Amino acid sequence: MFLGTHTPRLDDKGRLFLPAKFRERLSTGLVVTRGQERCLYVFPMDEFTKVTQQMQEAPTTNRAVRDYIRVFLSGASDEIPDKQGRVTIPAHLRQYAGLSRECTVIGTGSRVEVWDTEAWNDYLASTEQAYSEQSEEVIPGLM
């Protein structure tokens, strides 16, 4: 399970140092793709396979399903981290997420999200109040 918030930097070649606690789970391969709210999703290869299998079960007669699958998969890039735990973030994905040198990497359970630090801080500031007020409405019976 991926947890926590980390603040690695992109190097000049577009490589990101994965947080040390995430490296073992991602060492055999990962997929990075467009996420929602202009972040990137990073999945271990086996988890990405599960997600795509679920997508394939959705009715492709529905245009919204087709659109979502196209955007999600067309941006996907399979990568293997190097020996130092760096992974290359392709240019089109860096541009999509507006990544600068300063990044924030968060664990969200089964995947990792990569955010431009300024965008993450703005997002967090805009959603923290709603988070504290909505637990029962969003996930009934959780807490």
UniProtKB/TrEMBL annotation:
Name the keywords, alphabetized: Cytoplasm, DNA-binding, Repeat, Transcription, Transcription regulation
Molecular function in Gene Ontology:
DNA-binding transcription factor activity; transcription cis-regulatory region binding
Provide an example Pfam family for this protein: MraZ
Q: Where is the SpoVT-AbrB domain?
A: 5-47, 76-119
Q: What biological processes does GO assign it?
A: negative regulation of DNA-templated transcription initiation
Residues passing through the membrane, by range: none
InterPro entries named among the record's database cross-references? MraZ, MraZ_C, MraZ_dom, MraZ_N, MraZ_sf, SpoVT-AbrB_dom, SpoVT-AbrB_sf
Q: Tell me where in or outside the cell this protein is found.
A: Cytoplasm, Nucleoid
Coiled-coil portions: none
Q: What is its main location?
A: cytoplasm
The GO cellular component terms are:
cytoplasm; nucleoid
The similarity comment for this entry is: Belongs to the MraZ family.
The subunit field of the Swiss-Prot or TrEMBL record says: Forms oligomers.
Q: Name the chain's protein.
A: Transcriptional regulator MraZ
Question: Which organism is the protein's source?
Answer: Knoellia locipacati
